[in-house]
Amino acid sequence: MLKITTAQEAQAFIDRYDTFLFDCDGVLWQGKHALEGIRETLDLLRSRGKRLFFVTNNSTKSRDEYAAKFKSLGLTATRDEIFSSAYASAYYIKNILKLPADKKVYAFGEGGLRTELEAEGIPVRGIDEDNDPINFDILHTIKPNPEIGAVVMGFDVELTYRKYARAFTYLYHNPECVFIATNEDATYPIGGTVYPGAGALISPIITALGREPIYMGKPQQTMLDCIMLKYHLEKEKTCMVGDRLNTDILFGINGGLSTLLVLTGVTSESEASTSEIRPDFLASSLGDLYHLTK
Q1: 268, 241, 246: which is closest to 27 by C-alpha?
Q2: Angstrom distance (rounded) from CA 19 to CA 28
Q3: For 139, how many CA atoms within 13 A lie in the half-sphere containing its CB?
Q4: Where along this sequence does the record place binding of Mg(2+) (predicted)?
């Protein structure tokens, strides 16, 4: 693990790769503020002809919404450079799973997930449809539906037992119905604290079914498979940049990519030095690449 601290090390690092995959929160920004030197670093990499992609486990926003957030922070990112777990789910269903045209997806999650699924031409049920409570008198009306070819579960602040019952029923009565989870994050950070994340919300269905879903988000490799299929990247010339060892860095390691850990997020240098998950490179911040080479 090399810590990048000199102009020579920063330049050699930049020259070594053609493509960079970036986590967002804790790498590019914290909350509503871009981290120092990020705009300049991204501009530097683009000026050197590097390909940039932004990879996030967050499934609540569409790519257009993420692009708008980048713009609000003074950063540039195109829709095609953003790969969220919502878009990964939609891309996987259309291009890898190849869901038959006569099948629909039952999903729970936020509007960003519906937007990405529908943008790929996938019929969606569930999101915005099953927010009402349910009682024992009508629970029995939820029946198997052979039209549902996949169930996609993501972060949902309007989660109800009705949604759980439908998702479980479609999966339990049809073993061929594909079970997909946007990510397995146990917590969701917001407002300086954390709340139960998608992984926690999905766990009751996993327990009831005794069946694991196909996870889209980091550190699982499904999202990377989608990125590689769409953009035809060379793994040996690609580096994953993140602030979490057990998601971002493990994602890169498992996928055969080089990895850079930045210390502007959740992982400290002492944690990095003692962890079994070892990044190839370490930097105090992503902005160091600009400051060291200017």
Answers
A1: 241
A2: 16
A3: 10
A4: 23, 25, 243
pLDDT in tens, 46-73: 999 999 999 999 999 999 999 999 999 9
User: Binding site: what residues are annotated?
Assistant: 23, 25, 218, 243
Active-site residue, 43 included: no
Binding residues for Mg(2+): 23, 25, 243
Asked if residue 186 lies in contact with residue 141, where contact means CB atoms within 8 angstroms, the answer is no
Same domain, 91 and 208: yes
Instruction: Give the active site residue among 25, 130, 185, 248.
Output: 25
Residue 131 pLDDT class (50, 70, 90 cuts)? confident
Does residue 209 sit in the same domain as residue 249?
A: no
Do 101 and 196 reside in the same domain of the chain?
A: yes
Neighbours of 245 (CB within 10 A): 21
Is 25 one of the catalytic residues? yes
Q: Which residues of 132-152 are buried (b: 16+ CB within 10 A; e: fewer)?
A: eebeeeeeeebeebeebbbbb
Write out pLDDT tens, residues 83-110: 999 999 999 999 999 999 999 999 989 9
Query: Pick the catalytic residue: 15, 18, 23, 102?
Result: 23
Sheet with 258-262, side-by-side order of all strands: 2-3, 281-283, 258-262, 238-242, 19-22, 51-56, 82-84
Phi, psi angle pair for 19, to nearest 5°: -135, 140
Q: Is 228 a member of any domain?
A: no
**On the CB side of 16, how many CA atoms lie within 13 Å of its CA?**
17
In this structure, what token pair is assigned to residue 199?
Answer: 């992984």
